[in-house]
Amino acid sequence: MALSLEIVTPEQRVLTTECDEVRLPGVEGGFGIRPRHTPLVAALAPGELVYVTGGSEHRYAVGEGFSEVSHDRVRVLVEEAVRAEQIDKGRAESELKDLTARLSSMRPDDPAYESNRARVERAAARAFVAGRG
Q1: Residues 2-13 pLDDT 10s
Q2: For residue 131, what pLDDT is reported?
Q3: What total number of domains does the chain contain?
């Protein structure tokens, strides 16, 4: 019995596939989903999403969002999802450095602080996933 995995961003459906297992970056820690998992809805933090098919792991850098698990279907709704092979490691690390520097020059009460913090977290996820390959 397989899981049906769907990854969706505000712009597009990124992936629809069948897999054996999904590992997600929950806001309270990472967790895994296998067939016949208890239904749940979980908030996701920016990080690495991994799905396993036939023993092969496939990696994505994902932004914040939610996952819904029900009847062997895993729906992942996130701000962004980028396949590991599509991430340029040098560019991801440079972007993270630039965004981190910009955020460190801001005050927490700045109206743009939270949106910039979220951009830093997504950039960190891309850099992490790019470095795993």
Answers
A1: 999 999 999 999
A2: 86
A3: 2
